[in-house]
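ok so heres the complex, two chains, lmk if somethin looks off
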Amino acid sequence: MQVVSPLVEKMTEKRWIRPTQGRQGENLKSVYLPFTTTGIYSVLTGKSIYFQPDSTLTSDKVVITGIEFVDFATNNTINSNNGDRTTIAATEATLGYFVLSNSKREIIAQIPLACLILRLNGGRPTFTYWDDFQWENCSIYFSNSAGTSAANGAWFKVFYTTK
Amino acid sequence: MNNLIIKRSQIVEAVINGAPATGVRYYFTDIPNLAANNLRLYGLEGFSSTQLATTPTGYTTVSTTTGIVVTLRDTNKVEFLYQMPFYTTIRANNYGAYTILQPRTINLTDCYVTLTNTAGLSASQSVAFNLYYDLV
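and the predicted structre for the whole thing:
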């Protein structure tokens, strides 16, 4: 018999906590932001770099159940449609934010990139439950872009389940 | 063992105004969005300069984490989290485990950090957190 406290039961029902074991049954999509010298992917201090619309990551189809940021020490190169890019080092990730927004452009969550690096958090995944979001309204930005250039790119692993 | 699920988050901070001093309460900067009665705070995560170099408002985060404690008060002025070491709120120091709280409504401007040791701290540095909450 498993004894579960009423508080844990309530928080589990509300989807505020979940067991730390793996991500059974979840799907994964890698999303890249290959930086450029000019244009929408150029990196400037304080400038939001928005994700492109994604036919999979729409909140009428999926719930985002987790997100991870892949840093240089985890995997050093992105092979994107815009060419290869070097991933961002953890020290530079401390200068960046991931911003999740909904269709009204309300900011639902704002998380420092370095907090999303799996290897720096004991291998424990970052769980989310985002069922109301607009992927093309989500973005990243850097409070200081000095260490980031067009040779770099941002790599996110987005975990999701279908609705 | 359970870990936190992020549904909504808000970065908050308490800025060290003036020369750092022990025994002084450095209150959190107000975030009106967090004053909603239907808001339930259920977790938090501290940030040092290893996680976040600069807060959204432009303050530099603290790099020394061992001389800081945080106190949270709810809307009934109950100090439900009293002098918790800032170090232990940092997820990376806990093998990825978040600090999970019994859900409640907080009064952010009543919450504060105090310093138990000022070594390594400077004026205008920020003690920053992400608060995790939901609307019920």
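quick notes: Chain A touches chain B through 34 residues (CB under 8 Å). thats all i got rn
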